[in-house]
Amino acid sequence: MKTKETVMPTINEGYNPEKIAQYKAKIEKLGKNHIVVPSDDNSEEYINFNFIGFYKGKEVIYDAVMYTLRLHHLSEVYEVAEHKAAQHFPEFKKIKYSEDENGDLAVLDDMEEEIGLFIAEAIMEIEEEEEVKVREHVEVDSNIDFGVGLDIGLNVDVITDEVIQKFVTEFNNDTLQLDDVLYAFETQDEEMTQ
Questions:
Q1: Tally of CB atoms within 10 A around 77
Q2: For each of the chain's 194 residues, which pLDDT tens digit applies?
Q3: How far is it, in rounded angstroms, from Cα 115 to Cα 83?
Q4: Longest C-alpha distance within the chain, in Å?
Q5: Which of 178, 131, 182, 185 is nearest to 150 (CA)?
Q6: What counts of helices (H) and strands (E) characterise the chain?
Q7: CB distance 165 to 176 below 8 Å
Q8: Contact, 57 vs 15, CB < 8 A?
């Protein structure tokens, strides 16, 4: 006998007034206009944070990620290089790096090494030709499980508390002005000199 499952619609807690009040209290206690979400992914160039704002006239918790345009550019360049590798190598598969028993990176097999070298060369070529360009942006995603998602790329060297505070204030005051210039970055030289 088959039973019929009842699927309860999920409620987005990011719109819940009680949850919003909890976040407001946390934010106020910190003396800021946002809360950084603890994550191993957070770095000088990428931060996940929450703040309170309005979306379509309703108060909501925003779940935002902010990253530098340099990091965004690098990601886009790598994606294009991987696509080129997939076209060049019929047996292409993403390289999965693993560690040996000492915690060192395990040696790649010959095919993975050849694909890796091809990708590295493709990255240099893409950057030299400025094939990929990026601009500042804010993308809204209202179809997430908690609140409203924001994907934010800004032309700054690092994501600091001040950068986030300024963004949240301008976003909430509807005074945010994004730079629409297209940028390309070269990462190879920087990484080789470090």
A1: 23
A2: 454 554 445 689 999 999 999 999 999 999 999 999 999 999 999 999 999 999 999 999 999 999 999 888 788 877 877 877 778 777 766 666 666 666 666 566 677 777 777 778 877 886 777 777 889 999 999 999 999 999 999 999 999 999 999 999 999 999 999 998 888 887 654 443 33
A3: 11
A4: 68
A5: 178
A6: 5, 5
A7: no
A8: no
